[in-house]
Design a protein that fits this description.
CATH superfamily of the largest domain: K homology (KH) domain
Number of domains: 2
Largest sheet: 3 strands, antiparallel
Pfam families: OsmC
Protein name: OsmC family protein
InterPro entries: KH_dom-like_a/b, OsmC/Ohr_fam, OsmC/Ohrsf, OsmC_Ohr_Peroxiredoxin, Peroxiredoxin_OsmC
GO molecular function: peroxidase activity
Order of helices and strands: EEEHHEEHHE
Distance between the termini: 39 Å
Organism: Terriglobus albidus
Strand content: 35-45%
Structural class: alpha+beta
Radius of gyration: 17 Å
Number of strands: 6
Helix content: 25-40%
């Protein structure tokens, strides 16, 4: 039995370079959000699949780290995570092959060594990290 099912839709019209699409989510947070070749491959304003993956990974990792810190009886005061998703050409095909998670956390009463141990464990156990395991996922963790 699934814990949760979430859906999103994408509608694309036209060719790859001259077409465009819209993405919507079940919750309505994204509703007909436009995306296109230029927002994905030319860094023009607008969203793209890699940005959405980065948002998902940053959010999931922050929650996983909070859960692990709380289990350690050292709940965080704050966690600030950035996920950088890299899209490279691999064997002639665009491929998400790297993700860098950068986290800064304020955790009263926790030493740096234990923080890094917990942060690394959260990286390995975050559901989105497990989903994206085909990519190289690195972590830069800072205890504030």
């Amino acid at each position: 039995m699934a814990i949760a099912d979430r859906t999103a839709t994408a509608v694309w019209k036209g060719g790859l370079k001259d077409g465009s699409g819209v993405i919507s989510t079940q919750s309505g947070v994204l509703k007909d959000q436009e995306y296109s070749f230029v927002t994905r491959f030319e860094n023009k304003p607008g969203t793209n699949p890699e940005e959405l993956i980065a948002a998902s990974h940053a959010g999931c990792y922050s929650m996983a780290l909070s859960a692990e810190l709380t289990k350690n009886n050292t709940p965080p005061a704050s966690i600030d995570t950035t996920a950088k998703v890299t899209l490279d050409m691999v064997n002639g095909a665009p491929t998400v092959n790297k993700i860098l998670l950068t986290v800064k956390a304020s955790v009263p009463g926790l030493d740096a060594a234990k923080f890094h141990e917990i942060a690394d464990g959260a990286k390995k156990n975050c559901p989105i990290s497990r989903l994206l395991a085909a990519a190289e996922i690195t972590l830069d963790a800072t205890l504030l």
